Amino acid sequence: MRLLVTGGCGFIGSAFLRHALAQPGVERVVDLDALTYSGRRENVAELEADPRFRHVQGDITDAALVDALLREERPTAIAHFAAESHVDRSLFAARRFVRTNVEGTLCLLEAARGLRDATGAEVRFLHVSTDEVYGDLETDDGAFREDTPLDPRNPYSATKAGGDLLALAFARTHGLPLVVTRSSNNYGPRQFPEKLIPLMITNALEDRPLPVYGDGRNVRDWLWVDDNCAGVWAALVRGAPGRVYNLGGGNERENIAIVRGILALLDKPESLITWVKDRPGHDRRYAIDATRAREELGWTPAMPFEEGLARTVRWYVDHQAWWRPLRDASFEAYYKAHYGKLGLPG
Ligand code: NAD
Ligand code: DAU
Predict the structure, then answer these.
(1) Average pLDDT for residues 149-177, to the nearest whole number?
(2) Distance CA 150, CA 214 (A)
(3) For residue 142, what are the domain limits?
(4) CB 10 within 8 A of CB 43
(5) Has residue 208 been placed in a domain?
(6) What is the rounded distance in angstroms from the CA atom of residue 33 to the CA atom of residue 100?
(7) C-beta of 213 in contact with ligand 2 (< 6 A)
(8) Residue owning the nearest CA to atom 4 of ligand 1
(9) CATH number of the domain within which 230 lies
(10) Shortest-distance Cα residue to atom 33 of ligand 1
(11) Cβ proximity of 116 and 178 under 8 Å
(12) Phi, psi dihedrals of residue 14, rounded to the nearest 5°
């Protein structure tokens, strides 16, 4: 396999690069990443010595660059992770989400189709989508299945649904051998400290307030990042073309339970918990039915949640040199403006 990965310097993409390079029969792995605020070259530092690996800094919306890279590298497979990924940022910077998540996805699809048409060689395409495209569940609503109608409710999930549907349209209309995964919330090392788990860990380590939205009882299903990568890999190599696979951890938790768990692991007081206004359009609950991935791909998540959370907390304690520089002036400005609106004091 000659593999092109987009967004490989991000949280999940970098874990996927490590996973891919450990698989047999992988000749070449090229990472295309624009290195936005959440893309970190240090996330792939340990891979740079591998002669099969190449990092290219570039934007997936740059059609000329993407075309040239595909013609040079001739990948036999593409795993597309690059995205604007944070719901809260999409509330005030939606245009960038449309550009990367919709136009960038289209650009890659067209380049894959162009390479196939020019060379006759198939390029397997794995599009990384999200469970958020299904919208919102009430507490007793069951779980998302692959045939649950899409009902995205915030700008992030609307643009992810746009990319997801374009990808499936290219499978149908242009016959691209393309598979989509829709996973639940990932957690683990190297997640940018703006998402729930790393934000709460790093704030607690700095004795700053832990901002909990609304009543704290929104539910997410947590999936260990390496389990997601194993599922994405299985879908890339074994998934049926044109098919969608849900990937979930089977770990539904209320946000407040996660926050309390982190404080307990760090031996920090619950007085750090600060209730702020709710996220506008806040989805109440996500839950995944991953039966299809289990039956057709033979995939099941392996990491027990309590062990994964403890490992994640330990990673942030041990890697302060990784996250402290990320909480720079631009992060502070984002943090103050966003949480200021939601009611975080000072
Ligand atoms: P992330 O924000 O950590 O990483 C995104 C990466 O994409 C970064 O390296 C960034 O530099 C790169 N990127 C952004 N715009 C780009 C552009 N225009 N051109 C090239 N590179 C660009 O995100 P993540 O959490 O690792 O998410 C990866 C993928 O998984 C996304 O598609 C996301 O929608 C999806 N997903 C994430 C989760 C989760 O819980 N984090 C769950 C389900 C699905
Ligand atoms: O479900 C998959 C999605 O999970 C991915 O597609 C997204 O890329 C990823 O960011 C994630 O989206 P969420 O909105 O679920 O994740 P986030 O970590 O932002 O928030 C998780 C929950 O925690 C959510 O209910 C909002 C709440 N929250 C979040 C933050 C950042 C808080 O209460 N306080 C916070 O400060």
Answers:
(1) 98
(2) 25
(3) 2-190+223-251+282-304
(4) yes
(5) no
(6) 11
(7) yes
(8) 10
(9) 3.40.50.720
(10) 85
(11) no
(12) -70, -35
